[in-house]
Amino acid sequence: MTGDGQVTVSLLQRILQEQATMGAAEQRVAAFVSTSPGEVIHMSMARLSQTCSVSDPTIMRFCRRFGFEGYQDFKLHLAQSLVPSAPFAYEQIVQGDGIDNIVRKTCRNSLNAIQRLLEDLAPQQVEEGAKILHAATWTGIYATGISEVTALDAEHKFQRLGMRCQALLGGKKQWMHAESARPGEVALIFSQSGHTKQMVEVAIAARAGGGRVVSIAAADSPLARVSDVVIAVLPYDRTELMTPLASRLNHHLVINMLVTAIAIIGGSEFPDQLPALDSWQTDKI
């Protein structure tokens, strides 16, 4: 906890927010700390002063600005703030961010997203979904919008396991397959929010024909309520339109979990169809 009561996970964000109000010397310290926090926690105060071309008293003023009594106390809390933790901490990329901040924020947001998945995901849901997919005679993979990329990723990886499946993109094609679903078939649906009307209608239609529905979506959503199995992945707030990786990354991780679980259920250490589908293994120059 810092001097003004804010949790340590927001320390880097506070440094960025206050940087514009600092003098030139402290701004140099803020710029280096915010872009290279992993280096700072291993640096002495003298080394940091030399790197930023400032005096030791400037470093002390910088630390006290954020409520810390000294440099060592500041480094301790900085180190703690680098550990991903719940609740999900999201650093928004803003106009004026340099490439260093873009790289750092993108990586840290992704790490925090994975950490949250590890803490929130119910393994038994993944296991139940894998068992249904393994037993399916055919799997239709449904998604819309940016989640279509996730559906294509799932299609590729499941086909490497020798599964009969297809990524179904576009409303007309999705509806045609969903309404003709039969017992033994599975609809695998990806939806970040679980509120997309089109995906909810696909699930209802597939189940009406005797098919089963496995959804990767938010828990307690309309889609979750009409699915046989939901692998609950919490959506994240404040994700930007142009950088949605942090909020979508976990859906791709769930695919990898399902692929591995299905392979183990089937007794296969490696995908049987890998050589046939991945010609790049033998066609490299």
From TrEMBL:
Question: Where does the SIS domain lie?
Answer: 129-268
**A Pfam family annotated for this UniProt entry:** SIS
Q: Which Gene3D superfamilies match?
A: Glucose-6-phosphate isomerase like protein, domain 1, Winged helix-like DNA-binding domain superfamily/Winged helix DNA-binding domain
Q: Which SUPFAM superfamilies match?
A: Homeodomain-like (SSF46689), SIS domain (SSF53697)
The molecular function terms of the Gene Ontology recorded here are:
carbohydrate derivative binding; DNA binding; DNA-binding transcription factor activity
Q: What keywords would UniProt list here? A: DNA-binding, Transcription, Transcription regulation
Record carries keyword Transcription regulation = yes
One biological-process term from Gene Ontology?
A: carbohydrate derivative metabolic process
HTH rpiR-type domain ranges (all copies): 9-85
PANTHER family, sorted: GLUCOKINASE, HTH-TYPE TRANSCRIPTIONAL REGULATOR HEXR-RELATED
Name of the protein in question:
Transcriptional regulator, RpiR family
Q: Which organism is it from?
A: Pseudoxanthobacter soli DSM 19599
Its taxonomic placement starts with:
Bacteria, Pseudomonadati, Pseudomonadota, Alphaproteobacteria, Hyphomicrobiales
